Amino acid sequence: MKLGNHFPELYDNFKAYNVAHHRHTPEIEQAMKNLSGEEVVINFTPHLLPISRGILATCYANLKGEISAGTIDAAFQKMYGNEKFIRLLGRDAYPETKFVRGSNFCDIAWHIDERTHRVIVLSAIDNLVKGAAGQAVQNFNIAAGFDEVTGLNFIPFYP
């Protein structure tokens, strides 16, 4: 572990790291290409907070043409509305890491910035459950023919 990642170095602090060259950027771009069918180039700047677990992501996308708020709402509903561990909070909501802590949930909300013609998507996960470990269990369940939620259907710790 690097010195800058130790709790005493992180405490009462908030900082960006691996700006412009984070190791997960190519994976994110590949997933976006798979969804959109087009080459996608993103900026990804992770930040460290002195919290025990959780990731809050803020993502930006340029809107093409005149896309209505209702169309964006419908796209989220179509993509994620039936997913067991995705909770769509809706337009103009604010996900928080404390509401997913200890669970396999991913909370998603979006905002439309008419001035910049962008959609801003916010998501929160508990990276110790919804991260690689929870994903491995979820994938195993599906591959082995178990109910997808087996071993993962926990309510968040908060409050």
Description:
By secondary structure, the protein is of the alpha+beta class. Helix content is about 25%, strand content about 20%. It has 4 helices and 6 strands. A 4-stranded mixed sheet has the order 3-6-5-4, covered by helices on one side. It has a two-stranded antiparallel sheet with strand order 1-2.
Short description:
The protein is 26% helix and 21% strand. The protein has 159 residues and is α+β, with helices and mostly antiparallel strands. Strand 5 and strand 6 (118-125) form a beta hairpin.
Q: Main attributes?
A:
6 strands, 21% strand, 4-stranded mixed beta sheet, two-stranded antiparallel sheet, globular, 159 residues, 4 helices, alpha+beta
What is the number of E strands? Answer: 6
Distance between the termini: 31 Å
Specify the biggest β-sheet: 4 strands, mixed
Note the beta-strand portion. 15-25%
Q: How are the strands ordered across the major sheet? A: 3-6-5-4
Q: Total number of helical segments? A: 4
Assign a percent range to the helix content. 25-40%
The low-confidence runs, each spanning 5 or more residues with pLDDT under 50, are none
What is the C-alpha radius of gyration, as a whole number of Å?
Answer: 17 Å
- Oligomeric grouping of the chains: single chain
Which helices and strands occur, and which strands form pairs?
Elements: H1 7-10, E1 15-16, H2 25-36, E2 47-48, E3 55-62, H3 69-80, E4 86-91, E5 106-113, E6 118-125, H4 132-144
Parallel strand pairs: 4-5
Antiparallel strand pairs: 1-2, 3-6, 5-6
